[in-house]
Write a structure and sequence with these properties.
With 97 residues, this protein is α+β, with helices and mostly antiparallel strands. The chain is built from two helices and three strands.
């Protein structure tokens, strides 16, 4: 994901941040003997599969903020749906009495 201005940053993102570790395959690279190359990445669901986007360290703050906004929005929606279920149960109990 290219570095973005805050107005162009995604408002909501669903997924999980993780550190991608891999070996490049070059015989004389440091990763052949030990430490793998590391970069931040986002795992997200799409079409029933988990997809991965490699990120730069410059992307992390914006991605974390968008993930946090998604979680807050999802929590608020879940709370509203729970209240709706409680309301429906009360309505059904009154109707059956």
């Amino acid at each position: 994901m290219p570095r973005r201005e805050s107005k162009d940053a995604p408002e909501l993102l669903r997924g999980t941040l993780f550190t991608l570790r891999r070996r490049c395959g070059k015989a004389n690279c440091r990763c052949a003997e030990g430490d793998a190359h590391e970069s931040p990445a986002l795992a997200y669901p799409e079409g029933g599969r988990t997809k991965t986007l490699s990120l730069t360290h410059a992307d992390l703050d914006q991605v974390r903020a968008a993930l946090e906004r998604y979680e807050r929005t999802r929590s608020a929606l879940d709370a509203s749906a729970d209240a709706g279920i409680a309301e429906l149960r009360a309505l059904l109990r009154r109707g059956r009495s």
